[in-house]
Design a protein that fits this description.
By secondary structure, the protein is an alpha/beta fold. The chain is 40% helix and 16% strand. It is built from eleven helices and eight strands. The protein has helices at 10-14, 37-50, 72-80, 106-111, 122-127, 132-144, 164-181, 206-224, 226-230, 245-248, 266-278, and strands at 24-29, 61-66, 85-89, 114-119, 148-153, 188-192, 232-237, 254-259. Strands 1-2-3-4-5-6-7-8 form an eight-stranded parallel barrel, surrounded by five helices. The longest helix has 19 residues, at 206-224. The protein starts with 9 loop residues before the first helix and ends with a helix. The chain binds 2-phosphoglycolic acid. 2-phosphoglycolic acid (PGA) binds at residues 29, 193, 198-199, 237-240, 258-262. 2-phosphoglycolic acid binds next to strand 8.
């Protein structure tokens, strides 16, 4: 598969983005943080304080918190009822119930109003060895329970920035699998998170993300058609913060961020939120 050359997208770069049918996705992946109730309470209080003003004006942005699952109840109690926030799960079981030690049923997540799930985050692909089949089983279970899957894609195998040119097929295969597994889904959220950018303090370049997004878009259009590409929402993740988000927002077809480190700093998230609204 060939990367779509950046030059062909000069025109797109110069145009304002066509209106996306979906709200901007602002995913806040807390990972294994906080790790005590005391720290959780401090974080939640901070979130509520910093989001007081923007909660009134949350049109067009969907803020989704992905907390450690053990704190879902507390987060639901404080943020889940707040108009600016939705809840997400960092992972979910492909099974409803039974002998699956350590897993979390999508049915239980429904009880806490969890509306989104991260599928195959790179840390799960690396540490839990989630295979393409494991991920697709989760996509299906999630969709079956009206939990919107957020498919995370990116290369785990390397931290070499140039390898994307030969590995693009891996990304496209992941996108194809989601579309084929749940063809009726009204929305396909795909989060491109290059592993070398996650937690590094430096996001991928505008050019790199533009190329990847354009390549995915063209592939979905030519393979699955216009109706499917209309349902595709492309999100970027990897060291997004309040200093670099403005520039990242210029990327054509970008319609969301998945944020790790900065999501533990509610002031940063409030700044990012305001930047998205005003751009
Ligand atoms: P980061 O994490 O924002 O800390 O780079 C992103 C992610 O892992 O989803």
């Amino acid at each position: 598969v060939e990367i779509v050359p950046l030059e062909s997208y000069e025109n797109i770069m110069n145009q304002s983005m066509p209106d996306s049918p979906f709200p901007f996705f602002l995913g806040l992946n807390w990972k294994l943080n906080p790790n005590t109730i005391k720290d959780l309470e401090i974080l939640l209080t901070n979130y509520v304080d910093h989001h007081r003003e923007i909660a009134i004006d949350n049109d067009g942005i969907e803020t989704v918190v992905f907390p450690p699952v053990i704190y879902l109840q507390q987060v639901y109690a404080q943020l889940g009822t707040h108009p600016a926030f939705h809840l997400g799960a960092q992972d979910l079981s492909p099974h409803d119930k039974g002998s699956f030690t350590g897993q979390v049923s999508p049915a239980s997540l429904n009880d806490f109003e969890v509306r989104y799930s991260l599928i195959g985050h790179s840390e799960l692909r690396e540490f839990k060895k989630h295979s393409p089949e494991d991920r697709i089983a989760r996509v299906k279970a999630s969709a079956d329970h009206q939990i919107q899957p957020v498919m995370c894609i990116g290369h785990v195998s390397t931290k070499d920035k140039d390898i994307h040119e030969v590995d693009i097929q891996i990304l496209l295969d992941d996108v194809d699998r989601v579309i084929t597994a749940t063809p009726q889904q009204p929305r396909f959220i795909v989060a491109y998170e290059p592993v070398w950018a996650i937690g590094s303090g430096k996001p991928a370049s505008i050019e790199h993300i533009t190329e990847i997004f354009s390549t995915i878009h063209e592939h979905v259009l030519s393979t699955h058609g216009q109706d499917t590409v209309n349902r595709l929402q492309l999100v970027y993740g990897g060291s997004v913060n309040d200093q670099n988000c403005q520039e990242l927002l210029t990327i054509p077809r970008l319609s969301g961020f998945l944020i790790g480190g900065a999501s533990l700093k509610p002031l940063q998230i409030a700044n990012i939120y305001k930047t998205i609204i005003s751009s």
